[in-house]
Amino acid sequence: MPLYNHLKEHRARIGLNQQQLGSLVGASRQTISLIERGDYSPSVTLALKIAAVCQVKVEDIFQYEEDQDEKK
User: pLDDT (tens digit, 9 = 90+) per residue, 9-39?
Assistant: First the structure.
C-alpha cells in the first residue's frame, strides 16, 4: 500500500527521538521506526496522535498515492 510519510522530518523538527515520540503517542519505538520506513501504516487514531504531537495536519505527514495496478 503506497502510504508515504514525512514523519522523520517532522519528528526531527520538534526535537524528539523515536522513543520519545512513541511514548507521547502510546506506541513503541519500533512502531515509529516501522512507520518512518514505510513498512507499517498507522491506524487513523495513531496518525492523528502523531500529527497532534507534531502540531501539523495528518496530511502534512502522511500521503496516500494509489498504485496504477489498484486503479484497474
Answer: 999 999 999 999 999 999 999 999 999 999 9
Closest by Cα among 62, 59, 52 to 24: 52
The CATH code of the domain that includes 38 is: 1.10.260.40
Percent of the chain at pLDDT above 70?
90
Grid cell 487514531 in the structure block, residue: 45
pTM here?
A: 0.88
The partner residues of 4 in beta bridges, in order of sequence, read 63
* Buried residues in 33-44 as b, exposed as e (16+ CB within 10 A): bbbbeeeebbee
- Determine the structural domain holding residue 41 and report its residue range: 3-58
